[in-house]
Amino acid sequence: MTLGAELPASATPSPPSRAPLVMIIGDSFTVGSGPVRGWDGYAAQVARQLGWQLITAGAAGTGFVNQGRVGRTFQQSFVKELSWRPEPDLLIISGGRNDRRVGAARIEGAAVRLLELVRRRWPHTRIVLVGPIWMTRAPRWAYRVREAVSTAADRLEVPFLDPFEPLGPHGRGWGRGAVLPDGVHPTLVGHLRLSRWMVTRLHEYGIEPRPL
Questions:
Q1: So where does this one cross the membrane (predicted)?
Q2: Using an 8 Å Cβ cutoff, are 167 and 137 in contact?
Q3: What tens digit of pLDDT does each residue of 172-205 get?
């Protein structure tokens, strides 16, 4: 073949697929804690399983209302870390555990405002809300937080993933070896189980973005 000759149509390479762009906002369960760093956490494991390009935002100790030591809520993390980026295919907002000293109405209101802000900024992005994560039996007040986040999801017609499901009266929980010695955060095994649960739930909702 002479230099510069065109390839036959059958030999023309197809353009490479684009990995879906997914962003997630969360607390220490999402960004990493203890010996489990963010790149090994459940969000990164979900991204690897589903072929996503993942951008993680948020910080340990933060919530919909609680600013934590970093001094910002989930909404403030969205504004500072994500809102100026190109519109993603999917945004996951995961948390609420750190809002334990806040009334349910404030949590729900903050979650609704964040969802409304995301929709104004990225009208075509699909959104998923994930409730607070407990690897062991959750205290009573945690159900109040869970319901506040769930209600916000219902109001904005956003899918809600409930990590309390495996902890229910007929659930098996997250299994042995899933919790670090602090009794709070997941081990690497715990993150793997969380990721498998999330992949299953995303498939059930039919919202798992695929390579384009």
A1: none
A2: yes
A3: 578 889 999 999 999 999 999 999 999 999 999 8
